[in-house]
Amino acid sequence: MSKTFSLVSALALTLMFSTAQAVSQSVTETATIAASPADVWETAKNFNDIASWHPAIVSQTTTNGNQPGSVRVADLGGPTITEELIRFNEKHKNFTYKINKVNPAILPVKNYIAWFSVQDNGQGGSTITWIGHFDLVGDAKAADVEKGVRGIYRAGIDSLKATLEANTQ
Predict the structure, then answer these.
(1) pLDDT tens for residues 27-39?
(2) Which residue has the higher pLDDT, 34 or 11?
(3) How many angstroms from the chain centroid is the CA of residue 142?
């Protein structure tokens, strides 16, 4: 009994210690776009078409469009990121996805989940919000990973903004 108790206690302490060591991060990027929510959503919503508006994505393959469970492999010009669509909400103009596979040398994260939405900003335009939550892998520096993820989001949002605002002028 005491050996079992000691083993269980040691395991519990190990799990608590390893959980305490995990560093969770969140990144949020937003932008206002002078285009209708319908136009912004129509451009950005397709899980199988991110390469058409995100400058970091050279190409992608997708298994099942905007259906939950669809898997996208985004080619960054060599390295790839494999993502899975978790939820797609046409009515509320948002979707949630997770990263299933990424080389930690490219993006040192695990348990990555993100939410992308388009909302009416009440001033004739739209607000895009892109939020990601993730844990760091290995000895990655939180500030460096946050900067990288923020840069990925910002590049996509800025590209959408430039494209859509150019079309409204």
Answers:
(1) 999 999 999 999 9
(2) 34
(3) 16
Looking at the DSSP bridge assignments, the partners of residue 6 are: none
CB atoms within 10 A of CB 165: 13
Across 107-116, average pLDDT = 97
Q: Which residues does residue 13 pair with via DSSP β-bridges, in sequence order? A: none
Q: Which two tokens stand for residue 109?
A: 């994260």
Note the pTM of the prediction, 2 decimals. 0.85
Residue 97: C-alpha distances to residues 37, 58, 86, 108 (Å): 20, 19, 5, 17
Tokens of 47: 């899980």
- Distance set, CA 113 to CA 7, 31, 110, 149, 165 (Å): 34, 20, 9, 12, 29
pLDDT digits (tens, 9 = 90+) for 58-72: 999 999 999 999 999
Decide if pLDDT at 19 tops 70: no
Q: Which domains does the chain have, with CATH numbers?
A: 24-167 (3.30.530.20)
Separation of alpha carbons 107 and 103, rounded Å: 6
Q: How far, in Å, are 19, 71, 162 from residue 52 at the CA level?
A: 39, 17, 13
